[in-house]
Amino acid sequence: MWLKAFVGLFACARVAVAWWDEATLQEQVQFTDALLDSHSFVRLPGVYAHVKQHAAQLRAQITQTSALHFQDRSVSPRGNVVLPETKTYQELNMTQALDHFDGATNATFQQRYFLDMHWYDSGASKRMRKNGKEIVPVIVYDGGESDIDARRPMLETGIVRLLAEATGGIGIVLEHRYYGTSLPDRAALGNGSDWGVDQLRWLNTRQSLHDSASFIERMRFPGVGTDAEVRVIYYGGSYAGARAAFMRKTYPNLVHGAIASSAVVGASVDLPEYYYAVARYSPSKCAQAMQHAVHALDAIIAPSEEVNVTQADALRSLFNASNVTSLDDFASLVAVPLGIFQSNTWENDARVSPWQRFCASLVNGTRAAQLRKEHALALAQLPSVPDTLLNWGDVVRGLLPESGDAWRMSDPSFFRQDGGVLSDNKAWTFQVCTEYGYYQLAPPIPHLATGQASGPKILSARIDARLYQTLCDQGFTPGTHFAMPKTPNVSIPNAYGNMHLAVDRLAFIDGQADPWRSMTPHSEEYAFGGNRPDTINRPFKLIPDCWHHCDSTALLNRTAEPERIQNVHNEQEAFVRAWLKE
């Protein structure tokens, strides 16, 4: 969940990128939003706004283009397909205290949520009764580290609709504090307009979990009698998946059951394992091509001795990045396409995915031959450059703007001076720097004699903990009341149980090829691959050939889903019904 920038730059690209131009609008939105979801641009805050803006433009194109029709398809968790039905939900707010515990401020904020009563109103026959009371299921989807506008599809065709329709329940999508419109009034939090650490200090795990608890305690629904028994099924994916698990453990009297999808219940300062999965679950030719290219890249920009400036400049020109003066920034830029991997979804089963296009580009010998002619002058100043690195540069060439602030890619001033606008990227980076870590690094140097193992190396050695920590320290300078920790205090989220967290009526659902799997209970590195039984009371499911919270997407025509997805959706309906009977 770290890097956020890349695709928005297509809007002002110098060079057309064939593999991108061949994608449909739907695929482009899927790709763009997946990169934003993967946090691929935390290292590059200066270009985040370009991507966010371009994603909105693509989505607007889909809305405005009547010629685009998609047959009975779900919207993905990232909102990449046009909506199939008229909206049936309301947008509402609930007042929340900014500080639930210490009384350091009396400030409040309006926590936004979407409420869908449609399946409750039409589903009385599906609800059960116990001890004379009607059981009313409430499916709460945690919006996580995002504006919930991107989560609207969950009510329309995704997991919230699936479970609410199956049980005659109420659907809710709940926004996280400091994201979207769920913000305190900046003017009430001290002088100035920027969002500094003094204003962000209440953005933490404990406060945000209590928001959800307070919401559940106080939620009321039109037409639901006081004699009904409301039972909350809490769903989340990724960071929100961890929150779903934490809610079930911390507030068992409020959360009847929880589904934690791709739940990163473990937190680690360093996370090289993210890229191990990208290499291991890519086609073998692609994995080898990436490692070959990065080996050649680091021979120039991260040698054991001093960098040859002439060679480094020539290499940057191959990537259309001569104005990117920092080699750390350049290394981060080269790594950005790796975020495409997280855009993989079972919706791509029947077509070529963006990741497959990227992989095909790396091994395109015909294109490499053309590039050697086009860039003969730069190549003459370099040692042998393999086709794989040359082709990687071709992908990146189309991404950079002509000019402007985006050149200052990793400049921490983009976090310090936000002009009063708090982006999702800044809010999440604050959480990463304070509590979660997840520094997506190059692998450590292996050492056989000491047993220091490593993993596939598909990004530059320049991307290290120093790079991340500098952004944390310089992007969030000390305030009057709060200062950043020396390193992220990962003991806070890990105290909820990490990979060993297990309680009744808590389901863990993971994708076999999810790059975040190493931080979930199915972790091969920290949980023996998930050595637990799969039961109705404690479901524990690993979906083959699947990626990041891929169960949250559904089709209106369930028989059109791949068998592995149909199976997990049927199982989710079954265990939720069983939980509601308890």
UniProtKB/TrEMBL annotation:
Do you know which Pfam families this protein is assigned to? Peptidase_S28
Which Gene3D superfamilies does its entry note?
alpha/beta hydrolase (3.40.50.1820)
Q: Which residues form the signal peptide?
A: 1-18
Family affiliation: Belongs to the peptidase S28 family.
Q: What is catalysed by this protein? A: a monoacylglycerol + H2O = glycerol + a fatty acid + H(+); a diacylglycerol + H2O = a monoacylglycerol + a fatty acid + H(+)
UniProt name for this protein: Uncharacterized protein
What is the organism lineage in this UniProt record?
A: Eukaryota, Fungi, Dikarya, Basidiomycota, Ustilaginomycotina
Instruction: Write the record's keywords in alphabetical order, separated by commas.
Output: Glycoprotein, Hydrolase, Protease, Signal
InterPro entries assigned: AB_hydrolase_fold (IPR029058), Peptidase_S28 (IPR008758)
Q: Which GO terms describe its biological process?
A: proteolysis
User: Out of the domains of life, which is the source?
Assistant: Eukaryota
GO MF terms listed in the record are: dipeptidyl-peptidase activity; serine-type exopeptidase activity
